[in-house]
């Protein structure tokens, strides 16, 4: 090989070496770019996957809420149908009762066994219809504050030891005058209206027109608001509040509601903790949180034990709030993660509204700290909700009239009936609401005294009917059991 050929070969080798090194350098520069592009593509895929997952979850939640809304609507429709059927059944029961009563009164009175004389639990003095003497019943054996185990009237809803003449008069009263279904053997009545309340009953709050009552409810309403009732008499037995007649009188129109009534409503709703999805807390819960100087750990432990339960299935917490002589309701909605603020008198001043919302947030912070305790959870994997992070919600509601004292009544209605409505604007409050709350509390099966008070109410009703009949018989206007309308009745001389 010539010298020139060798040099040409060496030159070619150097060029190949340079090309190899240059290609290696280019590949080393392209590698990071490829890795970055792959990482960016992976991030995009993850974000796309999470976006799709969020959309699926959102669609499922919307579907679930739609189903729940449809179920709630169907439930309301069924409730209306059941109520209508109930009225039909009550009407049939009333007809059957009238037929049975007519059959009984066709029997000879001497074949009716009336038993022995018993004392009648009423207040004040009553004319004895048989002896025509004044009987003082203040020393009756029945204590006003008797509990379940106490002595109540041994025989329910009847008077005893009447002559056949008296029985005929009682039958006449029932037949000719409205509002006397409880007299003697005629107490089986399916439904009554407020218009059937006898005018002879001296009441501080009469049932408003249009109300319907079943069983002994109308007699209970008259007994609660009787002007002759003892204010200290216990009508609702609850260890966390005062259930005396004095507290119930705050349900009269125009009166400011006592917190004891709200606590009775809370206790009635709580019952025996059958509903694990809701907590109803008494007024003392928020009061102690917002007034640390009045905080009592023993009281808080009592509230925890009685009104709270396991929080695994918890969805709603109802907390009555009181600020500057005004009641409003806080609802912790765990499902929607909101703090619902229900107020029947929204302040026109934004500062006042913001102050009430800040009070709600303070209670939410304490509640969140409280339910972190593992004793509230059955599941070890449960994660306590961050209640303090929930956003306030101010849904539109009905509003009370300016100058009225109905704010506490609104809170009672929201607590008792919120499970019926999807829209809080459907709720309304009037005098009938006040009467209904009183009767529902006393006749509730959660009230240990419900049967005792019902007995007393019927005895009071019957005694007033007989006393009024005695007055009419002794008056100049009495004529064969009919009150003459020639002269207008004088104040204090009521007619049935």
From TrEMBL:
The UniProt record lists the keyword Plastid: no
Region of interest (Disordered), ranges: 1-32, 477-496
Organism superkingdom: Eukaryota
Pfam families assigned to the protein according to its UniProt record, in alphabetical order: Peptidase_C48
Comp. bias intervals (Basic and acidic residues): 1-14
Annotated InterPro entries: Papain-like_cys_pep_sf, Peptidase_C48_C
Signal sequence extent: none
Domain Ubiquitin-like protease family profile as annotated: residue spans: 225-418
Keyword Protease: yes
UniProt keyword annotations, A-Z: Hydrolase, Protease, Thiol protease
Record family assignment: Belongs to the peptidase C48 family.
Name of the protein in its database record: Ubiquitin-like protease family profile domain-containing protein
Species this chain originates from: Stylosanthes scabra
